Each structure stands twice: as structure tokens, then as C-alpha cells.
């Protein structure tokens, strides 16, 4: 490993550690006390985002449960570098939001176009409510009518242009890039899955009782799904793929379902942008998810480029030895938790050996380019099922995106669409 990569790996260990997180929280809380400011939870709302339709409903519960002040912001729709496949993202977001609404007993968004006079009116009404007595209640009511395609009653309006600009700056300062995000004390929480982290933090500060959580944890019961096939799209460079990999293997093993592994190139190697704000949040989010799941994480050696290519060159060899899943698991474990540099022979030899394979036999395949056809076919299949990023899944005719959606896969394996 080069000196530069060693420095980056050690820096990642510090940045993803629980100790560093605790220190940052202590500094933030000390500053808040010294300035005698209240506990403020920022919320960022995009009227066109179905996740925000869920968020405002959950936000009311958060406000009622904890001694915090909600500071709302309007925001613009994400830029193209944030959502490189906007149509696919919106389709998935709508489907995912409906699943969440059903699980949590919330009002679900309808399948309507996120543009037009109704959305413009909703945004102007909400701009006028930003400094009102109860933005959360107003936003929840307006959103319910909007996403149910009902006429929205007229009321006080304001030009949302400046409000969006202010919200965009606040979101950037908070360190995120999507609507439906809440931020507190220097940390962002996006989506229903992450609300428990915020609740735990607020309880620690004595602001309310987290248990029971607003969004309860999901159990994964034993089930029998023999005959079902689960397609799993992943990338060696995706930390979320790493967090999902062994858990998905365990789910299919316990349920007797067939697991079909479909590695694809990382987004950057496919020419898709990954802005720095997105990369930074993903690293922090993966660190806290890894701690929750009990998965080692943080000693990182980014395999982008040569590491991924050398790793993928051995896919066929590992499969021929009946060790494909073990090899993929060993590779991601090595680069995301052990700091192994897959671009070197020493690093790749460690991975191959950890997977139960013979390094002398495997090294002869490193220069092979046959893996490209396999990966390109998987990428075409990923596009065919309407998704773009990883980890993604296709099961029982439905597409699912995200390492935190294994509960959806379990539902589908049980036959609960």
C-alpha cells in the first residue's frame, strides 16, 4: 500500500470511530449550552419528494415526543449529480414510500407527477408557513391533499425562491443533499430507518424517552421460500454492498431461496457522478450502521480502479471453484474493515486465501478481461429492472434498493407483496 493510501486508511479509522463521533457530539453540546440556545432539529422539505410526505407525518410524532424545536426549510429538487438517474430514482422512491407507509400506518403517496400547478401552489403555501405557528401540521395537511390529488385550499402564500435558496444553503451546511432529511447537532438522519439514531441521541440528552421508537426495529423471522430466486446487484467499491452481503447470504440460506450474485462496476467507473457531500455522508452513515449491525468497518483501502478490476478478474475462477460468494465476501471484508490494498499482489493474495482459494492458481487469471462481459451484462440487467445503484435486488418481480431494505425482501419471500 502506498504512503498516501496508508494515511487515508488511518484517517478513515479515526473518522468512522465511535470515539470521534462522541467527541464531536460533546463539542457541539458544550457550544449549545454556552450559547444558551434551544435544542433545534432542522428539517428539509422538498414538495416533490414522496419521502418528504412520510417525513412530515413522522416529524409530528418527533415534536410531540421530545423537547425540541423544529426548524423547517424548503429546498430545491436535487441536482443531476446527486440523482444521475432521476426517473428511476423517483419510481423507486414512490414504491418504497408506499411500502413504508403500509408498514408504519401512514398516509401513502399516490402515483402522481411531481410537478404542475398543484406542486407550485403547495410550495407557495408552505413558504408562507415557514415562520408560522405549526409548520409541521400545515405541511402534513398540505402534503396529504397534494399526494392524494385533492384540491388544496387557498391561503397565505409567499414566493418560495428565496426560501429554497436559504434551505439549500442550510442543507449543504448540515452535510446532506436530499429532502426528508433531519439534522441535529452536526449529524444528518435521512429516511425512516435512521430516525432511531436521532431518538437515541435525544434520549441521552434527557429530552424524552426513545423506547418505544417511532419507527420500530424489524425482525427477520425464519421462513421457507424454496424455489424463489433473489438477484443481488453489488459492487466491490460500495460500502453499503459490504454491509448487505453476508446478511443477504444468511437470509437466502435460512429461507432456502436461490441467491444469484450480479457484480457491477462502481458508479464512478460507469461515468456516474458521486459528489463529495454524498461520499462523506455515506461513510458516516455506513459507520453507524456497521456499529448497529455488529459488522467490522473503518480500516478502508478504496479499491476504485485497479483494485476493482483485479478483483473482478477472479470472479470466474472463484465461481469455478464453487467459492464465488466466499470470495466476494472476503474481498469486501478486506477492503472495508482490514485495510487490504487489492491493487497489490499481497493484498489480493490475502483475499484469495481468506476465501479458501489457492493464490498460485488464482494469480494466473488476474490479467483476464472476460469479467467485463459478465459485469456489462449485469449492468444491463440492473437497468432493465429499473435501478441504477447498489446494493439492489430483484425478487418476485419487484425491484428493491438499499442494504436497509432486507425487511422488504423477507416480506417478498413470505409472499407479502
Record field, number of beta strands:
8
CATH fold field value of the largest domain: Glutaredoxin
The value of Rg in angstroms is: 23 Å
Describe the biggest sheet? 4 strands, mixed
Highest CATH level, the class of the largest domain: Alpha Beta
Mean pLDDT, nearest integer? 94
**Structural class, from secondary structure content?**
alpha/beta
Strand content: 5-15%
Q: What helical percentage do the residues reach?
A: 40-55%
Query: Number of helical runs?
Result: 17
In CATH terms, the superfamily of the largest domain is: Glutaredoxin
CATH architecture of the largest domain: 3-Layer(aba) Sandwich
Task: Give the neighbour order of strands across the main sheet.
Answer: 2-1-3-4
Poorly predicted regions? none
String of helices and strands: HHEHEHHHHEEHEHEHHHHHHHEEH
Counting structural domains, the number is 2
Task: State the distance separating the first and last CA atoms.
Answer: 47 Å
Shape: globular
Task: Provide structural commentary.
Helix content is 52%, strand content 10%. It is built from 17 helices and 8 strands. The model has no long low-confidence stretch (mean pLDDT 94). It starts with a helix and ends with a helix. It has 2 domains: 38-204, Glutaredoxin (3-Layer(aba) Sandwich); 229-413, Glutaredoxin (3-Layer(aba) Sandwich). α3 links the parallel β1 and β2 (69-74). It is α/β, with parallel strands linked by helices and 417 residues long. The chain has a 4-stranded mixed β-sheet with strand order 2-1-3-4, sandwiched between helices. A 4-stranded mixed β-sheet has the order 6-5-7-8. It is globular and about 70 Å long. The protein has helices spanning 3-15, 18-35, 50-65, 86-104, 117-129, 135-147, 160-174, 195-204, 239-255, 276-293, 306-313, 315-320, 324-337, 345-354, 359-362, 371-384, 406-413; strands at residues 40-45, 69-74, 181-184, 187-190, 229-234, 258-263, 392-395, 398-401. α3 (50-65) packs antiparallel against α6.
Amino acid at each position: 500500500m502506498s504512503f498516501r493510501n496508508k494515511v487515508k486508511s488511518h484517517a478513515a479509522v479515526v473518522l468512522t470511530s465511535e470515539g470521534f463521533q462522541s467527541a464531536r457530539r460533546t463539542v457541539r453540546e458544550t457550544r449549545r449550552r454556552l450559547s444558551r440556545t434551544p435544542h433545534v432539529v432542522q428539517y428539509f422539505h422538498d414538495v416533490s419528494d414522496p419521502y418528504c410526505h412520510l417525513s412530515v407525518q413522522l416529524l409530528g410524532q418527533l415534536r410531540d415526543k421530545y423537547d425540541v424545536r423544529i426548524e423547517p426549510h424548503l429546498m430545491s429538487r436535487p441536482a443531476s449529480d446527486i440523482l444521475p438517474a432521476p426517473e428511476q430514482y423517483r419510481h423507486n422512491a414512490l414504491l418504497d414510500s408506499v411500502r413504508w407507509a403500509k408498514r408504519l400506518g401512514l398516509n401513502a403517496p399516490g402515483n402522481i407527477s411531481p410537478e404542475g400547478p398543484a406542486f407550485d401552489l403547495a410550495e407557495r403555501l408552505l413558504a408562507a408557513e415557514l415562520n408560522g405557528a405549526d409548520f409541521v401540521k400545515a405541511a402534513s395537511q398540505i402534503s396529504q391533499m397534494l399526494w392524494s390529488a385533492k384540491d388544496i385550499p387557498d391561503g397565505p402564500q409567499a414566493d418560495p425562491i428565496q426560501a429554497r435558496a436559504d434551505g439549500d444553503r442550510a442543507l449543504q451546511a448540515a452535510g446532506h443533499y436530499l429532502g426528508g432529511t433531519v439534522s441535529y447537532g452536526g449529524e444528518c438522519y435521512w429516511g425512516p430507518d435512521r430516525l432511531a439514531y436521532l431518538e437515541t441521541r435525544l434520549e441521552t440528552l434527557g429530552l424524552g424517552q426513545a423506547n418505544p421508537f417511532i419507527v420500530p426495529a424489524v425482525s427477520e423471522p425464519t421462513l421457507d421460500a424454496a424455489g424463489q430466486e433473489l438477484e443481488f446487484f453489488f459492487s466491490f467499491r460500495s460500502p453499503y454492498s459490504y454491509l448487505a452481503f453476508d446478511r443477504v447470504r444468511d437470509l437466502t440460506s435460512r429461507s432456502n431461496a436461490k441467491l444469484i450474485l450480479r457484480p457491477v462496476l462502481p458508479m464512478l467507473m460507469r461515468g456516474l457522478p458521486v459528489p463529495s457531500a454524498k461520499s462523506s455522508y455515506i461513510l458516516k452513515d455506513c459507520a453507524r450502521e456497521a456499529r448497529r449491525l455488529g459488522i467490522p468497518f473503518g480500516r478502508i483501502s478504496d479499491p476504485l480502479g485497479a483494485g476493482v478490476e483485479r478483483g473482478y478478474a477472479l470472479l470466474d475462477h472463484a465461481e469455478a471453484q464453487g467459492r464465488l460468494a466466499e470470495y466476494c465476501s472476503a474481498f469486501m471484508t478486506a477492503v472495508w474493515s482490514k485495510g487490504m490494498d487489492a491493487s497489490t499482489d499481497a493484498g489480493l493474495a490475502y483475499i484469495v486465501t481468506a476465501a479458501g482459494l489457492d493464490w498460485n492458481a488464482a494469480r494466473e487469471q488476474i490479467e483476464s478481461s472476460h469479467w467485463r462481459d459478465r459485469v456489462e451484462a449485469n449492468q444491463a440487467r440492473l437497468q432493465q429492472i429499473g435501478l441504477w445503484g447498489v446494493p439492489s435486488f430483484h425478487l418476485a418481480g419487484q425491484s428493491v434498493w438499499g442494504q436497509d431494505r432486507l425487511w422488504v425482501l423477507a416480506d417478498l419471500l413470505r409472499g407479502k407483496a
